[in-house]
Design goal:
With 153 residues, this protein is mainly alpha-helical. Helices cover 52% and strands 9% of the residues. It has a 3-stranded antiparallel β-sheet with strand order 1-3-2. Helix 1 packs antiparallel against helix 2 and helix 2 crosses helix 4.
Length: 153
């Protein structure tokens, strides 16, 4: 697809995609976690309830997200808004290293009151801090009147 046919995906579309992804993860992980820990799982005040919690709530979503980003350039939520995550310089699929870095950089972007996530709303390329650190952009087919994407390579 030509770059003049693409646009950067803004904050609200990405927020909607995040809601879809979060609901899907909850629908998959919560029944399993409840079957292991019971409803007391939700009363636990620690960050990780145990090894099963770590694997199901932390490791599996990480692996699934990285595989989806590398394989099809999008999570289900991004697919709903017709968005793809690509390398910011070339527009090609991101590397495994970029995908892992992007995922881990979400935590950095969230730490200072979520400023790194809200940055998407104000950035000219609609990049959050996690995108900037990983060298990625989120794009989709261009709508009338929107600013086209320009890749360096």
């Amino acid at each position: 697809m030509e770059t003049n046919e693409l646009e950067y995906v803004g904050f609200w579309a990405r927020f909607g995609a995040t809601i879809v992804d979060t609901l899907l993860v909850m629908m998959i992980t919560y029944p399993v976690l409840i079957s292991i820990y019971g409803f007391e799982y939700f009363e636990n005040t620690s960050l990780i309830a145990g090894s099963a919690d770590f694997m199901i709530a932390w490791v599996l979503p990480f692996i699934a997200t990285v595989l989806l980003w590398v394989g099809v350039q999008a999570t289900p939520g991004k697919m709903v808004v017709s968005a793809r995550v690509v390398d910011a310089k070339t527009g090609a699929s991101m590397s495994v290293g970029q995908a892992i870095g992007r995922y881990l950089c979400y935590f950095v972007a969230i730490l200072p009151l979520g400023i790194g996530i809200f940055w998407v709303a104000f950035d000219s390329k609609k990049q959050g801090w996690h995108d900037k650190m990983a060298g990625t952009v989120v794009v989709r087919h261009r709508h009338a009147g929107s600013r086209p994407v320009k890749f360096e390579g």
